[in-house]
Amino acid sequence: AILRYIAIKYKPEYYPVSDPAMCAMIDFAMDSFSNEVYKAHHDTIYVVFEFAQAPADQAAANKTYTEKLDTWATHFLKGKFVGGDKLTIADFKAV
């Protein structure tokens, strides 16, 4: 919600409310990242930065993260960004 608020208030081109289809894609990309990719992100990236303990099978966690990130990117990246050539709040969520 905070990304939407900041975009609408300060950078509306990152969440173009005049284009409901694009907003739906942005929302779907952000929800999918949170629900599908984030757990695997936690099990790899957080471990690297020592914010979390390594899982029992780190190699499997790394593979899972790579697969989930590849699936997300294949589905949502329509060019350089989720919005094609235009940066959106979904890109910030995924960074």
Keywords, separated by commas or semicolons:
single chain, 95 residues, mainly alpha, 4 helices, 66% helix
Outline of the structure:
By secondary structure, the chain is mostly helical. The chain is 66% helix and 0% strand.
List the helices and strands and how they pair.
Elements: H1 2-10, H2 20-48, H3 58-76, H4 89-94
Helix pairs in contact: 2-3
Query: Which descriptor suits the 3D outline?
Result: elongated
Describe the largest sheet.
none
Average per-residue pLDDT, rounded, comes to 95
Order of helices and strands: HHHH
What's the end-to-end separation, in Å? 16 Å
Strand content: under 5%
Q: Please report the number of helical segments.
A: 4
Structure description:
- By secondary structure, this protein is mostly helical.
- The protein contains 4 helices and no strands.
- The longest helix has 29 residues, at 20-48.
- The two termini are 16 Å apart.
